[in-house]
Structure formats: structure tokens, C-alpha cells
């Protein structure tokens, strides 16, 4: 069973969803489940280099709502071990390059770890994950070759592929993240509780087994 997780690196609910998914896989055991992280840009209009986060949030939500927007998310984060530090985030980045890095991490065999690293660096450490220096440092942390990553980031490598995957997700009807897509057929939207994910894994794995047996 292939599980595609459609998410954005600046989506706090995606970080919560990642932690819940990790717990679900631990409960289930993960046997027969292959994970692939897919890109979705919540705001592709943010320019390269990013924008001031405070001004961006106030423009998007209004001054008062922007000030209190993270309170509920912090509570959910604490429940899964995330220390959201929104006050440390100075830039709202364009996330295209971070998605490129996640794609390359898949080739290097450390994609799931890279997703964790980028979430932590952005939401807990307040780092600018649109910065090539930060992304290269994240690559080093994951055991990748930072020099190769720097070189790729300076080029247009896989930019169009990321945009096409983002567009494909939208064509599938995905408008919110995180979304979990199973075998390109079934979609579950939102940061689901671990128990819900485990039930989904068991049900769909059983269905796949039945279909395979019937085809023999």
C-alpha cells in the first residue's frame, strides 16, 4: 500500500498530522505501507526570499486574529510533543525549494526524516526554510551531501516537477492539507488521530489483500 502525504512545510496542522502519523505507524507496525511525501504550496505567490511574517499574517487574518491564531494550534501541538514557537518565526517563505529538498531526500532514503527536520526548524527553531543556507544545513543533518544540494538549489532542478505535483493534487480535488492518499484512489483530509489512521491502514490493506486473492 502506497501512502502519499500531501502537505506544505509551513502548515502547522501538517506537522501535527506528521506526529500523529508516526504514532499510527508505530502502533500498526507499518508493514506493507510505503510512504511518499508530496508537495502542496499553500501560497505560491510569496516571492523568493519570503516576506515579513508578522505583516503577512496581519494582512491575511487581520491584526487581532493574527495575534491569537496560534493559541489553539499550540495546545494540539503540545499533545503530540511539538513546541510551536510562532514568535520566533520572522519570515514566511516561499516553500518551493523546501519541497525540492524533500523530493531529493526521497532519492537519498531520508525523506521522512527530512520532513521532520524542516518542520522542526521552521516551527520550533524559527529558521527561514526558504533560505538555501538553512536547507543545505538541513540536508547535512539528514546525512545528505550539502554541496550537491546547494548546487541543485542554485539551478532549476525539479522546480517544474514540484509545480506539476502540486497541480495534480488540486486536480484530484485536494484543497486542504495534510491529505492522505492511498494507492492514488482513496483520500482522507486533515490531521487524523492515530487510531483513525490505524483503522484506515487495516481496512485498506485487507481490501488490497482480498483484491489480490480474487485476481489469482
Give a structural overview:
- It is a single chain.
- The protein is α+β, with helices and mostly antiparallel strands and 216 residues long.
- Helix content is 56%, strand content 11%.
- It has 10 helices and 6 strands.
- The protein has helices spanning 12-28, 53-61, 63-68, 70-79, 96-108, 111-123, 132-141, 146-154, 159-171, 194-215; strands spanning 2-7, 34-39, 51-52, 91-92, 179-182, 186-189.
- The strands form 2 sheets. A 4-stranded mixed beta sheet has the order 2-1-5-6, sandwiched between helices. Strands 3-4 form a two-stranded antiparallel ribbon.
- Helix 5 packs antiparallel against helix 6 (111-123) and helix 6 (111-123) crosses helix 7.
- The radius of gyration is 18 Å and the shape is globular.
- The mean pLDDT is 95.
Helical proportion, percent range: 55-70%
- The overall strand count is 6
Radius of gyration: 18 Å
User: Order of strands side by side in the largest beta sheet?
Assistant: 2-1-5-6
Mean pLDDT score = 95
Features of the shown structure:
single chain; 216 residues; alpha+beta; 4-stranded mixed beta sheet; two-stranded antiparallel sheet; 10 helices; 11% strand
Please provide a brief summary of the model:
This protein has 216 residues and is of the alpha+beta class. 56% of the residues lie in helices and 11% in strands.
What is the topology?
Layout: E1 2-7, H1 12-28, E2 34-39, E3 51-52, H2 53-61, H3 63-68, H4 70-79, E4 91-92, H5 96-108, H6 111-123, H7 132-141, H8 146-154, H9 159-171, E5 179-182, E6 186-189, H10 194-215
Parallel strand pairs: 1-2
Antiparallel strand pairs: 1-5, 3-4, 5-6
Helix pairs in contact: 1-10, 5-6, 6-7, 7-8
Amino acid at each position: 500500500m502506497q501512502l502519499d502525504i500531501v502537505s506544505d512545510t509551513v502548515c502547522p496542522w501538517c506537522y501535527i498530522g506528521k506526529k500523529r502519523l508516526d504514532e499510527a505507524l508505530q502502533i500498526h507496525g507499518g508493514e506493507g505501507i510505503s510512504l511518499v511525501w508530496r508537495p502542496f504550496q499553500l501560497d505560491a505567490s510569496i516571492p523568493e526570499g519570503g516576506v515579513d511574517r508578522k505583516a503577512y499574517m496581519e494582512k491575511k487574518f487581520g491584526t487581532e486574529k493574527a495575534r491569537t491564531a496560534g493559541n489553539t494550534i499550540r495546545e494540539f501541538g503540545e499533545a503530540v510533543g511539538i513546541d510551536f514557537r510562532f514568535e520566533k518565526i520572522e519570515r514566511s517563505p516561499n516553500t518551493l525549494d523546501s519541497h525540492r529538498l524533500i523530493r531529493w531526500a526521497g532519492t537519498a532514503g531520508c525523506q521522512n526524516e527530512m520532513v521532520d527536520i524542516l518542520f522542526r526548524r521552521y516551527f520550533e527553531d524559527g529558521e527561514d526554510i526558504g533560505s538555501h543556507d538553512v536547507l543545505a544545513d538541513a540536508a547535512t543533518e539528514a546525512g545528505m551531501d550539502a554541496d550537491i544540494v546547494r548546487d541543485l538549489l542554485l539551478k532549476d532542478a525539479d522546480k517544474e516537477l514540484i509545480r506539476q505535483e502540486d497541480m495534480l493534487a488540486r486536480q484530484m480535488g485536494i484543497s486542504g492539507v495534510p491529505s492522505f492518499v492511498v494507492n492514488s484512489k482513496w483520500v482522507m483530509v486533515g490531521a487524523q488521530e492515530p487510531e483513525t489512521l490505524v483503522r484506515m491502514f487495516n481496512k485498506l490493506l485487507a481490501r488490497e489483500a482480498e483484491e489480490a486473492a480474487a485476481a489469482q
